[in-house]
Amino acid sequence: MVSVKIDSVSKSFGNVQALRNVSLEIMNGEFFAILGPSGCGKTTLLRIIAGLEKPTKGRIFFDEIDVTDVPAEIRDVSMVFQFYALYPTTVYNNIALPLRSKGLSPSQVHERVVEIAKLVGIESILNTHVDRISVADKQKVALARAIAKQPQLYLLDEPLTILDPVSRVIMRAELKRIQKELKQTIIYVTHDQIEALTLADRIAVMNFGVVEQVGTPLQVYDYPETVFVGWFLGEPGMNFIEANVEPEVLKISGKPVVRERKIFEDLRRKGYEKILIGFRPEHVKISKTPSTYLNGKAVIEGVVRVVEFMGTYYVVDVESDGAEFKVKMDPRSFTSLSINEGEKVWCTIPLDKILFFDSNNNKRINIGGSDG
Amino acid sequence: MEKALIVSEIVKKIRGKEVLKNVTFEVEKGQLLVLLGPPGSGKTTLLKIIAGLEKQDSGSIYINGERVDDIPPYERKVSMVFETLALYSNMTVYENIASPMIAEKKPREIIDKKVKEIASILRIEHLLNRRADKLSGGERQRVAIARALAKEAEIYLLDEPFSNLDAKIRYALRTEFKKLKTMLGKTLVLATSDPLDALALSDTVVFIEKGVIIQKNPPVELYYKPIRLDISRYLTGKILNEVVLKKKTDGGKTIITSELDVVISESVSRDIQDIPVENIILTSHPDNTMIEKSVENCDGLKIRGRFLGYEYRGSEFLVFAEYKNHLFKALKYEKPLVDFNEPVDICIKREGLNFYDLDTGTLLR
To answer: Which residues belong to the signal peptide in this entry (chain B) (predicted)?
Structure first.
């Protein structure tokens, strides 16, 4: 078990800057996810932690010891990749190999192989050749082999991507359980927000080589620090609408939507005239009857432009004088309301579900000191 | 309603193999029909036949009531976007979108107005002066769609227009595309293997497999009542809940058994009584299923399983439980307060249950 500190790390490949001044602190025994779209630099960062790449600038610390110049093979980390690479032999031998190279006696090796196989749930296939086992089992063997190394740190790079959805669910649960039992530090790289939100204790969301936010799954989902994090997380992502800060009200396309004194006074005090208001599609309530101003709620009047049926939910696109946003509805509410394209609707959003962003730098504005 | 397109009894053989088998359907004016099916189901061939780029062996195509079988592609008034996007790389986005209208010798002001209108809906106005070879994948896709829609045509054909795009861009482009359809009132036929494209976009979905039309419905009907079990699985991407039941009649009494030790409510038992087959598979979506520590009154199927975990999806949780190696899924809006491996009740509600013949996979009820 180890803590990892990434201190102002940058990495360039020729003219391409893959990482820009990345700083992170990963705690002892933490399940830490690095989440971002393809090309955001997350795998490069993982390779730098493993020692497979050298940072152009910055340092890496394991338990406060600088390991930046320590070669990969003595960093004591285990990596599991998206595509497992197994030795063409039995499952048993695959797990035993790292143990034998540690100089363990045959009986110690056997004891440990069985123990790990039980932990990962592959004891019944120990004597099977890896060519004859399923994809999910192969990935379990790769994980078992990583555990056999008894590293101080696990680095996982999209290890569940190639699994079918059912195996993925089971492997996710197993991974979480194994991590709890081993009490080890895991850094897990993924582009899949569900994977990160589900598994991680904390998530670093990356974009274009920059860490946009670090927080618990709830923090990054409910209180995104930047427009990118709000947009990237969620299906569909957060809505952002430009609003004018006027003396007594916040207006969208010339229409008042928020009249809460505390909000616009604070925004004006901070010198904002134009901002972005952000809210999640699932926090909007749609009504076909006019809603006037409500205490603690924002009201936006609009017209339904597009309705999309997504199976387990509906997405309704509403336009309000040029500003557009999405509303997510469960099939029951949608059916009972029966909304059609072209219809006029009133949308209410609880004020505590609305966030405010600086439209120049796309960062969240902290209103009245409250900060999720 | 006026028919913009009639596809009538189309048969097509490629190297002796029948790839389209008597395909018939109609598209009303201003409607968006999605041809949904796995890769290799004959969708692209069908689009090419409609466009006149391939010749059918038998059957006819009617556009606006006129039989066009002997009319060459350029006179058919159809516009097609292929999965492989061929843009003129040395031209700007503006020129690419304008090119079909220039070929049609449209007046410059009309071309300009049209290019800007479509570019605005597809949100590519800022790219109009950029060269096509400087675009990202998502941008190229938008430009290709814009160019196809700029062409004056009765019917627009799109082959996998959102493939190769990451989920976020796909999501955004789908909405814009649907808006475009609504605003321009065009008749469109879109081929895709992605069920979400079909559900989100279409007025009607035609499910095609191995060159045969299996089902044609509005998307909501197709989703909730697929006429075959494999279509249901295809549409839901493996989040379907399934329970196999065996029905036997012994001395006038019906006995229902299951290897999953299911407790069946009276109402579902009655439903099953009327079903004329012995091996039945019941399916349901996760939004009609509950996974809780205990479910007291379950009107449906109840199974005692173990809790496996959940997916946190931001606005909801997809909860998983298992019994005898069968995985069950339920949609929940609050975080489940159950520990890994803890026993749970899985209640698959009667509302939303579909009954299929296990042996043939056909819908029974």
So the answer is: none
